[in-house]
Design brief:
The chain is mostly helical. It has a domain of about 100 residues. Helix content is about 65%, strand content about 5%. The strands form two sheets. It has a three-stranded antiparallel β-sheet. Strands 4-6-5 form a three-stranded antiparallel β-sheet. A hairpin with a 5-residue loop joins strand 5 and strand 6. Helix 4 packs antiparallel against helix 6, helix 7 crosses helix 9 and helix 10 packs antiparallel against helix 11.
């Protein structure tokens, strides 16, 4: 956490008390409440500053080590945060997947979890996950292409993770954040024909649940093919330019045979460029057609909704 430690961290006397074991609440409620509040807040702030919603007790010990002092009773703090629903275990988070938020926390957290000494158990700080989800969604909306013809809502998950590394610390935190976005109905997760994870973000003009379709997988495949063609065209352009330079060099040296050889190389490269550019343009047109089809469907849906509302109004009169 570095400079994010509170001012009290520099006070040896106060920190000695806060680092000490927590007394049972019925013995000393003030001590219990003070330490619970302090360490719960420290955990929350550390998750935020580390951009990592996932932690273990061992990680917390390393974060909050103060000289030769370690915070006592972290297991009690963890139990309290489990009981209040501020955290859950990573395994439980995964198990409940898309429907776990709707089930509520407090109704079952306290009964399922006893005090734990398992320093390796991974916990998820849920408010941090929600913040990450907000930030990731805002990043998508502000940074990704808004050209409707190019279907910006279809995103390769691995590439999106790379773009989101300033928001989340690692892939594990990225995955739990995606689960939160899925729970909100902002994203659905599909796969390409070769098993790559693909995201489909909610289109603001669409209604109802997000559906993953074969067309969405095709969009991803076409993008991949277009990207590959772009790289190939650039490579061939460099090859053609180099062949032309070599041909000029041999012409200046009076070596017509070698000059002709490199001119033929240039011609072949330019022919390949033309072929690949034609392939690229065909794929681009297909992408644009898909985009226009989506727009037309949205316009038709709005028209139908308006017509139905108008008919309903007439029937009530």
């Amino acid at each position: 956490m570095g400079s994010k430690f509170p001012e009290v961290w520099a006070d040896d006397e106060q920190m000695s008390g806060l680092m000490s074991m927590i007394k049972a609440r019925d013995v000393n409620p003030n001590d219990y409440d003070r330490k619970i509040e302090f360490w719960s807040d420290m955990i929350a702030k550390s998750c935020d500053s580390e951009r990592n919603a996932i932690f273990t007790i061992d990680i917390l010990k390393r974060r909050f080590r103060r000289g030769d002092q370690l915070p006592g009773s972290l297991n009690v703090i963890i139990q309290h945060m489990l009981d209040t629903g501020e955290i859950t275990t990573l395994d439980d988070y995964k198990t409940r997947n898309q429907n776990w938020l709707q089930r509520g926390y407090k109704s079952f957290m306290g009964s399922l979890w006893g005090a734990t000494n398992d320093n390796q158990t991974e916990y998820v700080h849920l408010p941090t996950v929600k913040k990450h989800a907000d930030n990731m969604l805002e990043f998508f909306r502000s940074e990704y292409a808004v050209d409707d013809d190019m279907l910006p809502e279809i995103v390769d998950s691995a590439e999106f993770f790379e773009e989101c590394k300033h928001l989340v610390a690692n892939k594990k935190t990225y995955d739990v954040t995606l689960a939160e976005l899925v729970n909100r109905g902002e994203v659905t997760i599909g796969s390409s024909k070769i098993g790559e994870e693909i995201l489909k973000f909610r289109d603001n003009a669409a209604h109802g649940p997000i559906k993953w379709t074969e067309s969405d997988a095709s969009v991803h495949d076409m993008r991949r093919a277009m990207s590959k063609l772009e790289h190939e065209i650039k490579r061939l352009e460099i090859k053609a330019k180099k062949a032309e330079q070599d041909a000029r060099l041999y012409i200046r040296q009076g070596d017509k045979n070698h000059a002709a050889q490199y001119l033929r190389q240039k011609k072949r490269a330019l022919k390949e460029i033309e072929s690949k550019d034609n392939q690229y343009q065909r794929l681009l047109e297909m992408m644009q057609q898909l985009g226009r089809t989506k727009q037309n469907k949205q316009i038709l849906d709005v028209y139908k909704a308006g017509a139905n509302a108008f008919k309903a109004t007439l029937q009530r009169q």
